Amino acid sequence: MCGGFTCSKNALIALNILYVVVASILISVAVYGETSSLVTNLPIVGGILACGVFLILISLLGLAGAVKHHQVMLFFYMVILFLLFFVQFSVACACLAVNSDQQEMLAQQGWNKVNMDVKEQVQQRFQCCGFQNRLIPVNGSADYPSCDLVDRNCCKNMEISQNCQCEPCMEKLKETIDYAFKLCGGIGLFFSFTELFAVWLARRYRNQPDPNYKEPHAIFPRNNYLY
């Protein structure tokens, strides 16, 4: 019967298996990001890895509590998952609410933190030069690598290439960054509501009696030992 003890148990187990799969994907993406030289020093990689590990630990706790119908495990699973819902819902809403100016500010902070090797790889991959402009500071040291190679690649199909220059990287990355924020916000918002559903399902399952559970009964001998 749907809505009964067995149905709630199987639904909670299936939902936590889904969380394990999602957490494994997050960990795989983070490991791939660590091995990719393009994003080696970006702090977002560590955040993705931490979220994946944390989610898989909560999922294992929920699986153990669902299989054993363990009241204490299910209680802590509900509390932790409810707190995670608030955090993930807030972060997802923040990602969806970030405007173009805030995205540019965050991208500028990330550009300033990475080293020249990463900047050079970004310039070669997206065929751009510098972050916002190509102005050389007063001290004569630019905050981006040389753009001679990318300029030649940008202008190789043009007849006159003497004054040809690649666009700044922010212009090339603007759509990509906006898409990444919207995608992360949408996925985070979707999974936050699944976590709220998991909290409700765990509470329902926790309060349902196990039909296979047999209460222990004390067996008293017929003989009265007082006489």
From TrEMBL:
Keyword Cell cycle recorded: no
Keyword Cell inner membrane tagged: no
Membrane-crossing residue ranges in chain numbering: 12-32, 44-67, 74-99, 179-202
Swiss-Prot/TrEMBL keywords: Membrane, Transmembrane, Transmembrane helix
Membrane topology, record value: Multi-pass membrane protein
Entry GO CC: membrane
Cellular compartments annotated: Membrane
Coiled coil: none
PANTHER family: LD03691P (PTHR19282:SF452), TETRASPANIN (PTHR19282)
Name of the protein described by the UniProt record: Tetraspanin 31
